[in-house]
Design brief:
Blueprint lengths: L3 E4 L2 E4 L2 E2 H7 L4 E5 H14 L6 E5 L6 H9 L3 E4 L2 H9 L7 E3 L6 H10 L3 E4 L2 H14 L3 E6 L25 H11 L5 E7 L10 H17 L5 E3 L17 H12 L5 E4 L3 H4 L3 E13 L2 E6 L8 H5 L5 E3 L6 E9 L8 E9 L6 E5 L19 E6 L2 E6 L4 H5 L2
Parallel strand pairs: 4-19, 5-6, 5-12, 6-7, 7-8, 8-9, 9-10, 10-11, 11-12, 14-16
Antiparallel strand pairs: 1-2, 2-3, 4-13, 13-14, 13-18, 15-18, 16-17, 19-20
Helix pairs in contact: 8-9
């Protein structure tokens, strides 16, 4: 179900007109639908209800504390990759026994904090990290629960910059190294090897790569004879950024995982981010100028690449819509761009768009994942506000950074 949609030519976030929000709050700002967030979480959990996985929301996709608290209320855990994300998760009240700590460059400080918080798993990615955790565990005389991240040499046929499962990527351990590390862990009395972890990338819309991953994990289990307590399959489930782009078939994926679990005494962990938060968000922005140059119309917005980095970083597409649709159209070479002093500060090229004027508002859709979390102060611009809508109510869940705070730090 879509909670952000046109109603009588007005873009609405649940029961509220986006145009009314644009008039109330200073643009640009992010706006999220709480109902959409809950709907996405339950869609995922219901698809896999037969296996009852632990769902650990990927905090790197969106770390807003209010959103994390809402996810905690409906049962979500957290996947974290830094001590900051770990502290955000625990501040949101997420049970440490539903937190997995991933990432290839964990510092000693971060590892000690993960141990102190008693997280479910620390997913290690190198022998050096294993040795450090073992050293720490000996000092404090505690048995630490760990997993090992596998690099399965499987890619999700997604954008190169968000693909993490290939053999040339920095993540995880290839098959032979994984097997060798399992042997070494068995000799370390203070470590408990409870999990195998794998994450092959993001925005994956086919189940075929996941099928290959499950086959590789089976091979690992047969070779090591380890009955892993947890099998962490990561996230990566894709969403539809355009009407033509398909979404992953969760029913088919669930059947694969159920078949895989047959005769196994293991708990599945998922680390979704984009699937849960991606389509909950819209970036509302004002048109500053419409500049005509060389047979082009540059639609210059008050939102820039510092607010939404994905188009510049990944060539990502976000549909652009008017907050109030009209029957008249603007035609030609339309370029929607931001105010940042970079040629890469652009969002979309269109040939036709609803008639718009300077001072009016538009929205960029599906920005809930990696929108705010990738934002910056580039060009010394304040980070923007975040708003949450629930039914007919709305509130600020993150204040816009003040210019005074920015220039004094």
């Amino acid at each position: 179900m879509n909670y952000i949609k046109l109603r009588k030519n007005n873009l609405c976030v649940e029961n509220i007109s986006a145009l009314n929000l644009a008039k109330k709050y200073k643009t640009p700002f992010y706006c999220y639908s709480l109902s959409q967030l809950k709907n996405n979480y339950y869609t995922l959990s219901n698809a896999f209800k037969n296996i009852k996985p632990i769902i650990c929301f990927s905090i790197k996709s969106n770390s807003n504390l209010s959103l994390l608290k809402e996810l905690r209320k409906i049962g979500s855990g957290a996947d974290v990759v830094s001590v900051g994300e770990l502290l955000k998760a625990t501040k949101a009240g997420i049970n440490p026994k539903k937190i997995v700590f991933s990432g290839i460059g964990k510092t000693e400080e971060e590892i000690k904090m993960a141990i102190k918080k008693k997280v479910l798993l620390i997913n290690i990615e190198s022998e050096s990290e294993l040795n450090l955790i073992n050293k720490i565990s000996k000092k404090i005389s505690r048995k630490i629960s760990i997993g090992i991240r596998l690099n399965p040499n499987v890619t999700g046929k997604t954008h190169q910059k968000i693909s993490t499962g290939g053999k040339d990527e920095k993540f995880g351990l290839v098959y032979n190294d994984f097997i060798d590390l399992c042997k070494k862990v068995r000799k370390m009395k203070n470590l408990s090897l409870n999990g195998v972890s794998v994450h092959i990338g993001s925005q994956i819309t086919s189940v075929d790569p996941f099928k290959k991953v499950l086959s590789m994990i089976n091979k690992i289990i047969n070779k090591t004879k380890i009955n892993f307590k947890f099998i962490d399959l990561g996230g990566g489930m894709g969403i539809s950024y355009t009407k033509k782009e398909k979404q992953i078939n969760l029913k088919k994926y669930a059947k694969l995982v159920s078949k895989f679990l047959k005769n196994k005494d293991s708990k599945i962990i998922f680390e979704p981010g984009r699937f849960i938060i991606g389509n909950t968000g819209i970036l509302i922005t004002k048109i500053i100028y419409i500049k005509k140059s060389n047979n082009r119309n540059f639609i210059i917005l008050d939102a820039g690449m510092n607010d939404l980095m994905r188009p510049a970083l990944y060539n990502a597409h976000h549909e652009i819509v008017p907050l109030k649709k009209t029957r008249k159209f603007l035609r030609g070479n339309l370029k929607f761009v931001g105010p940042i002093c970079e040629s890469s500060d652009k969002f979309s090229n269109l040939k036709i768009f609803s008639k718009i004027r300077e001072g009016e508002y538009i929205g960029l859709l599906n920005v809930g994942a990696y929108g705010m979390s990738l934002s910056s102060n580039y060009n010394t611009r304040p980070t923007i506000a975040e708003i949450m809508v629930s039914g007919s109510k709305h509130k600020i869940i993150r204040q816009r950074q003040s210019l005074e705070n920015l220039v004094n730090n």
